[in-house]
Amino acid sequence: MGSRRWFHPNISGIEAEQLLLDRGMDGSFLARPSKSQPGDFTLSVRRQSEVTHIKIQNTGDFYDLYGGEKFATLAELVEHYTQNQNQLREKNGEIIELKFPLNSADPTTERWFHGHISGKEAERLMMEQGKNGSFLVRESQSKPGDFVLSVRCNDKITHVMIRHQKLSALDDGKYDVGGGEKFDSLTDLVEHYKKNPMVETSGTVVHLKQPFNATRINASSIEDRVKELQKDNPVHEGKAGFWEEFEFLQQQECRADTRSRKEGARPENKTKNRYKNILPFDETRVKLKDIDVNVPCAEYINANYVLPDGEDGERKKQYIATQGCLPATVNDYWKMIWQENTRVIVMTTKEVERGKNKCTRYWPEPGTKKSYGTLLIRHLSETNFPDYTLRELEVTKEGENNPPRTIYHYHFKAWPDHGVPGDPGCVLNFLHETNTKQEYIPDVGPMVVHCSAGIGRTGTFIVIDIILNLIKKFGLDCEIDIQKTIQHMRTQRSGMVQTEAQYKFVYMAVQHHIETVSKRIAAQTKVPGRDYTNIKYSNEDAGGMDPRLVKPPPGPTSPAIPPVSTGPPTAPRPEQSKTLPQTPEPEKPVYENVGKLREKQNFREPPVPKKPT
User: Fold this and answer.
1) Which residue from 492, 507, 495 is spatially nearest to 455, judged by alpha carbons?
2) Most CB contacts within 10 A, which of 149, 203, 287, 500?
3) Where a domain ends, among 150, 183, 212?
């Protein structure tokens, strides 16, 4: 799971229930200190309309649930029962599922706060990427609720414990380093010691010179992070945090740019590359299979598979990032579409921009058909929308009995020749439509995305889609890392997301999405006391469980602590049969114009696409 932000150091059982019912969904959970047994902890889990509290024992040697598996840390215990969903059960055998961590609010919006990372991870990061005087603040793993100031001094890392003392749940408390002056906030403490360096008992002076900033954030706090990134950089005048993060990304790619691109550089393949220096990595490139073995390098096409990070064990959503077609590569392009069983193509460039050809037209005129190698393409229909054109194409392979395939060609036309769109809503609506189509086609292959070079706009569209899918799956309280996501994409195709403007646009698009979803949930969820009128709606939007399994919450939360079993798993429930409905037609825009959205006091309910049952 990799996160400890599910730990809430200063809330009571009643406050935990209120949080889980206000912000959570079925399967949301948090951990907190036990009020009745100091030193122990409590795991609070929302189960449909009720909250179950599970005691966690801390013996001083290990953590356990008063029986069952034993763990060295609270984080390991929670991670175990999160990853092994069928092992935490009540005495009657009913499973208690830990699905969605309900994250606590960060104590500061400062970028030097890294949340839950361990001391070893802090040391590794600052030794690899920092310099003497670099510092960060993180949560203490040995003393939940306290913090640690980690500083690089003389090429080693010094860790200073920061105590956080609170008199009550309503009190923000004071921060100190074990003596001396007390501060109202972590920011005040850090600012003080930046001006007044600490001295270790060994005599080493601990200078806080430059912050080592984090890029991982809680998705719901993206507005605060964007505000921080818009501030001027104190070291580089006139440069904001967006520049700093993007510049770091560029430097990292230079250091790691050792992957082979030999195939694209072969003389036989030079005419297949739109730009001679923008070549696919050999390791992740798409290789054509139905080829003439007598033609040298016939399997080559300038395209790479792109997969999201961190979804091992699951069927990952896959993309193919490729360049705009050249006259000599159109046949190979269609060969790839057929080979990969692609049904949705996303084109993010016009055919000609600023007088230069960006992509050769690779589809026939409406109502006509044309052969591209062994594939016959028939243009069935073309529909124009304000920001894009949708073409429906039928592809048939000559000489085979395979049935024809329908390909949906989404051609985005609202990207300006210079810069990025002024309103991210047009891109978000476009991605909403392409994903709706992709999700309704069974056994569909990778979505093909291209611009001209296949890295700038292509990378921007793909990374936005990856982040939005993460939020959809894990909810608005999940952790996202835009910089790291792009860095991972660049290990599969170089140069993905080309400019600082595109990098900033990713943040703005994700922020607009979160703002929209939050307003949709707020508009649909009426909360007189604990009367939740639309749990289904918020679950579908924010990544909850199957809404058919959510019961309306008529009753109060359960006050007692139920008995818990951690024995062998019970038999799984039989899987419900699924039928595939017709794909809905494009609806009214889900995402409003940013300006209009912020002017409105009453948020208009956008449409919600129905999922197959």
Assistant:
1) 495
2) 149
3) 212
Q: Do residues 319 and 416 both lie within one domain?
A: yes
The count of C-alpha atoms lying within 13 angstroms of the C-alpha of 447, restricted to the half-sphere facing its C-beta, is: 26
Amino acid at 134: S
C-alpha 425/C-alpha 417 separation (Å) is 18
Instruction: List, in sequence order, every residue forming a beta bridge with 45; answer none if it has no partner.
Output: 29, 52
**Average pLDDT for residues 82-86, to the nearest whole number?**
84
- Dist. CA 90–CA 55, nearest whole Å: 13
Residue 427 and residue 563 in one domain: no
Q: Which residues contact 145 (CB under 8 A, 6 or more apart)?
A: 9, 10, 33, 164
Three-state secondary structure call for residue 598: helix
Tell me, yes or no, whether 283 and 386 share the same domain: yes
Specify the pTM: 0.69
Q: What pLDDT, on a 0 to 100 scale, did the predictor assign at position 166?
A: 65
Query: Domain containing 557 — which CATH number?
Result: 3.30.505.10
Pairing state of beta strands 479-480 and 217-218? antiparallel
Q: What does the buried/exposed string (b/e) look like for 343-377 if buried means 16 or more CB atoms within 10 Å of the residue's CB?
A: bbbbbbbbeebeeeebbeebbbeeeeeeebeebbb
3-state per-residue secondary structure call for 416-427 = CCCCCCCCHHHH
Residue 587 makes CB contacts below 8 A (sequence gap 6+) with 607, 609
Indicate the pairing of strand 134-139 with strand 210-211: parallel
* Tens of pLDDT, residues 279-301: 999 999 999 998 888 899 999 99
Within 8 A by CB and 6+ apart from 438, the residues are: 343, 344, 444, 447
Q: Which residues pair with 43 in a beta bridge?
A: 31, 54
Residue for token digits 């978000």? 428
Helix H or strand E segment including 64 = strand 63-64
Are 179 and 321 members of one domain?
no
Q: Which domain holds residue 556?
A: 13-99+545-570
Average pLDDT on 139-151 reads 83
How would residue 459 be classed by pLDDT, with cut points 50, 70 and 90?
very high
Catalytic residues: 451
Q: 28: which strand partners?
A: 100
Q: Which two tokens stand for residue 146?
A: 């306290």
pLDDT tens digits, 344-399: 999 999 999 999 999 999 999 999 999 999 999 999 999 999 999 999 999 999 88
Does residue 529 lie in a domain region?
no
Shared-domain flag, residues 503 and 556:
no
Q: Which residues are annotated as a binding site?
A: 417, 498
**Position of tokens 């055919």?**
351
Is the pLDDT reported for residue 532 higher than 60? no
Residues 164 and 60 in one domain: no
Q: What is the tens place of the pLDDT at every residue in 174-208?
A: 888 887 788 888 888 888 888 888 888 777 888 88
Which residue spans within 76-155 are E strands per DSSP? Answer: 89-90, 100-101, 134-139, 147-153
One-letter amino acid identity for 351? E
Whether residue 151 sits in one domain with residue 80: no
In a domain, 527, yes or no: no
Q: Where are the beta strands (DSSP E) in 454-609?
A: 479-480, 564-565
The structure tokens listed for 361 are: 């037209």
State how far the alpha carbon of 588 is from the alpha carbons of 174, 208, 430, 453, 513, in Å.
50, 52, 11, 32, 16
Residue 3 pLDDT = 54
Q: Which two tokens stand for residue 470?
A: 């993460």
The pLDDT of residue 236 is: 56
Would you list which residues are annotated within the binding site for substrate?
417, 498
Strands, E, within 438-502: which ranges? Answer: 447-450, 479-480
